[in-house]
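Schema walk-through. Below, the input block comes first and the output block second. Nothing else is stored per chain. Lengths vary across the set, and this one has 349 residues.
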Amino acid sequence: MPKGAKVAVALSGGVDSAMAAFILKRQGYEVLGVHLYLVENPPPDPPLEQLAQALDLPLTVLDLRAEFADKVINYFLRAYARGRTPNPCVKCNAAIKFGVLWEKVREMGADRLATGHYVRLQNAEDGQPGLYRGTDCRKDQSYFLCQVSRQVLPYLLFPLGALTKTEVRRRAQELNLPSLQNCRDSLEICFVQDEHYLDFIQRQQGGLGKPGEVVDRQGHLLGRHRGLECYTVGQRRGLGIPASEPLYVLEIQPEANRLVVGPKAELFSSGLKASGVNWLIEPPAAETTAQVVIRYRHPGVPARLIPSGPSEVTVLFAEPQAAVAAGQAVAFYRNDRVLGGGWIEEKID
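--- output ---
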């Protein structure tokens, strides 16, 4: 990319996006700061205008509340209503940050879009742009980008991919930028601010789901649940069911409004079926192998991937894995490269 090319940076006001913008400015690019207005009542913004002035870049605020509500918040609510465990960050990255936002900044004349994600983008062995884990394994965010379109990759920049969070914070302190004083890291669910996610669901939908039965694998009635939104697969606390050994949520059955629980030994699965698979490589036509990550912070497990269509894959683990949750994102890796990712439909016992 030639010096002076125009790069839009998704500027939240936090340390990471500010440092991404600073690095790109130093590299000689024309940098445009873009801040996203996503929720009706956001927390008080950092002094973004002061930050933009300190970085010497123009600032544009894009109102994407309608798109965010439609593509992320409604997805979040529908998933819980269906007894699934959603991942709004994966959905937001694909649909909003690297979907709607990219289209907007391209209309503004931007050649590239940059963010403060801890991931690396580099040419792979096949000569195509490849998405890789960030150098800082503790902050790596590649899992959250597994649904980003392959066609968008050539237009993205991730200036922090080769840095550690410690290095970024140290450099930010040396710059003494105005909005970075006492700045918190991003919230896990940005649209659920000062309340529990169940309070958010209740407020949005006017209540939670109806109470129902809690049963074991054999169908024996063990108790009652408070509403399926209150539980996730793998959960142990809060079940309120006396037993001789700890019980875990094994399965959520929305059609029967039923919660299936059992001991830890019953929590393990030999595989899963995924849909909505997004490939960041040439889609494999036959069975292949990969390291499979079934949730954020999951260490990954070797597995066989068996395609059953353009966007459906059966995954067979080398070793059984605990708490495979329908609705969660599953990402596929090989040598730190993200091959793609999909959405867990069901586990295979």
